[in-house]
């Protein structure tokens, strides 16, 4: 099997780093294929009247293009963006603990959607774009009723900061989640089935075995 050329993850998220490592190790063998981490520097503020789905799709593509512009060699750029959607309202990363408490109080006892968009860009030897593909996956997350005691316990962990919706399902935040309908990797921030399909679409030497 042809190995992918230089792979670049346009994210510094430890969750996405772990998930991409998991996918590459499964496909090619542990440690056979590595990748660079090169986060973009773009404004992630929602546009006026932008829906949660349109928001993550726009940002995933923008991130992939911003990082691709830095390379003048063959590479595959992988970018993603995740948001929490409750009744059409975007729940991004909290500004502080007070903001995290507000978000979690709104999510408490309710079911919301988590949307993760992924964009992949395949660059030629001279850095020109050969192909690109992007897609979206969504999952439903039902939260428990978050008691005041559990709220203060979770906020004290510090885990809510830097997380869309102010919780991490794969961490202590899992205690706030009743059930997930859909892919857990979508909720964490990098849907692996979608990513495998996109890599196959851009013909980067990936063999899609799904």
Strand content: 25-35%
Helix content: 25-40%
User: What is the class in the CATH system?
Assistant: Alpha Beta
Helix/strand-derived class? alpha/beta
Order of helices and strands: EHEHEEHEEHEHH
Report the oligomer: single chain
Distance between the first and last residues' Cα: 16 Å
How much is the radius of gyration in Å?
Answer: 18 Å
Shape: elongated
CATH topology (level 3) name: Maf protein
Kindly report the average pLDDT value. 93
Number of domains: 1
Uncertain stretches of 5 or more adjacent residues: none
Examine the secondary-structure arrangement and name the CATH architecture: Alpha-Beta Complex
Main beta-sheet strand count, sense and barrel state: 7 strands, mixed
- Give the tally of β-strands: 7
Number of helices: 6
General description of the model:
The two termini are 16 Å apart. 32% of the residues lie in helices and 25% in strands. The protein is an alpha/beta fold and 210 residues long. It is elongated. The mean pLDDT is 93. The protein has a single domain (7-201), classed as Maf protein. Strands 1, 2, 3, 4, 5, 6 and 7 form a seven-stranded mixed beta sheet that branches.
